[in-house]
Amino acid sequence: MATRAGADAAEAYLGSSRELEIKIIGGRVERTVEAEDRGCGLRVSKGIRQGFASTTDLSRDGLCALVDASLAVAARVPEDPFAGLPEPSGRPYPELVLFDPVVDSLSWEHAASLAARTEEAALAVDARLIPGEGSTFVAARGEVAIASTLGVAAVYAGSHYALGCSPLAVHGDDRQRQSWHEARRFLSDLPEPEIVGRIAG
Q1: Residue 84: what pLDDT?
Q2: Are 119 and 130 in contact (CB under 8 A)?
Q3: Are 47 and 84 a contacting pair, CB within 8 Å?
Q4: Which of 27, 45, 74, 163 is the most buried (most CB within 10 A)?
Q5: Integer Cα distance of 131 and 95 in angstroms
């Protein structure tokens, strides 16, 4: 679409993500966030000028507007003889194992229990500990695809898990808060909630 509209070369970047976050304070669910996001960025070259724009409207009309916006930016920016899109390397892309399929079958109940167990372990360390900012579990996944008129074409998916706790220690009039967080790409690699909680405590 971009080259038909007048670009000499173009590169499109498409990304999507989904995330679940659960926060537990005092054994109760304080906050739940379930979010999905997707969008597209387009970089165009026209002569020795480049333009970039992005959108979350992936309808045909939205993508047409994205092309128009990228070309409009390219028409207004200063010339840059060093600007250009990357050429394909000619070598195969490395096969990186970044995605844990467990993220798609993880239940809300199991995710909440991981956060709750973390807080319980932290508070069990010392009687002077109270929930403070509680504990949080996050599970997320994302996909990225990139393609250009020069022949670049690649896609990958990745996952992310995080578990953390921020208890508050109370002794007389003194207050001290500390946090401990762990993050991994694979849920099986994430330390047990009891370990994270004890370190935080």
Answers
A1: 86
A2: no
A3: no
A4: 163
A5: 42
pLDDT digits (tens, 9 = 90+) for 177-189: 999 999 999 999 9
3-state helix/strand/coil string of 21-87: EEEEECCEEEEEEEEEEEEEEEEEEECCEEEEEEECCCCHHHHHHHHHHHHHHHHHCCCCCCCCCCC
- DSSP annotation of 7 reads -
Q: What is the DSSP string of 89-133?
A: -SSPPP------GGGGT--HHHHHHHHHHHHHHHHTT-TTEEEEE
pLDDT digits (tens, 9 = 90+) for 130-145: 999 999 999 999 999 9
Residue 68 structure tokens: 């128009």
Specify the pairing of strand 174-177 against strand 49-55: unpaired
pTM for this entry: 0.84
pLDDT tens column, 77-116: 999 998 889 888 888 888 899 999 999 999 999 999 999 9
Task: Give the whole-angstrom CA distance, residue 4 versus residue 147.
Answer: 16
Sorted by where each starts, the structural domains of the chain and their CATH numbers stand as 9-86+97-200 (3.30.2290.10)
Q: For residue 113, what are its two tokens?
A: 């229990």
